[in-house]
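sorry for the late reply, my laptop died twice this morning and i had to redo everyting from scratch. anyway the thing you sent over, i finally got around to it. pasting the sequence first so we're on the same page, its 162 residues, then the predicted structure underneath. double check i copied it right bc i was rushing
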Amino acid sequence: MIGVKTSVNVQGIEKFSDIEKQLNLLAKWKLVVQFNEDNTEANGVKVELIAMWLEYGSEGFNVHYPARPFWRSAIDSNIQRIMNRFKFNANQVAQGKMQARQCFEDIGKQVVEYIRKSILQGAFAPLSESTLLARALKGSGTKPLIDTRTMLNSLEYVVKEI
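ok and here's the structure:
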């Protein structure tokens, strides 16, 4: 009689099942980079609204200042890095070396940092004389987009289900 001895590695099946679950989560979640919805400036105006006005300026809204595209410039100049990071992280998930949430959180931190850097280091249209005078009176600096730092500190990322 010829016999064949077989065994099933249950741990391998469980590992594959975990990886499959994590890969499915990559397709069910999305990363949202935003300004905290609850944050407002001292005058009560939501930070996300002010950020939109600053991003598009008089090009898109009825405001008296030029666009200072900190968001678009941050994303446009780093889109290939962001995409490469996602590919790398997704591969890590496929190998069981990273969880789906970690994949998104890693990219979220990266994108928030790109936008913060754009706000802090961007070359924007200079502030008007009246804005410079108002800032001097309250002891603020002369850098566009940075007055109270509320907008800068309101940047966040959220992983949401699609």
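Residues 33-161 form one domain.
thats about all i looked at so far, will dig more tmrw
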